[in-house]
Design brief:
Layout (H helix, E strand, L loop, with lengths): L25 E6 L7 E5 L5 E3 L4 H4 L12 H5 L14
Bound molecules: zinc ion.
The site of zinc ion (ZN) has 8 residues, from loops.
């Protein structure tokens, strides 16, 4: 009997995915003053940032609120953010 396929180990910290858009292009942008306590991570695709000590609903794709999740399609078809208008002449 083979049991190796049933209990696949979770590599939670080895390869983090973005909680909001599930992209794997996550980089570490800051470390805690006391080393090893937390990191601030950022998604390269949707720019979402989170600290690793935040609650699971902010740090894990599985627990991120459904209504705020993004897909690649959502990002590609997102409404353009309006440009900041030029300053008015005095
Ligand atoms: Zn993302």
């Amino acid at each position: 009997m083979h049991s190796s396929d049933s209990g696949r180990p979770e590599a939670a910290d080895a390869s983090p995915v973005c909680p909001r858009c599930a992209d794997t292009g996550v980089s570490t942008v800051a470390h805690s003053p006391v080393p090893g306590v937390w990191q601030v991570l950022q998604c390269a695709r949707c720019l979402y940032m989170w600290r690793t000590t935040e609650p699971a609903r902010r740090t894990r794709r599985e627990d991120y609120p459904l209504q705020f999740r993004l897909t690649e399609h959502d990002i590609a078809t997102a409404t353009e953010v309006p440009a900041v208008p030029a300053l008015r002449a005095r």
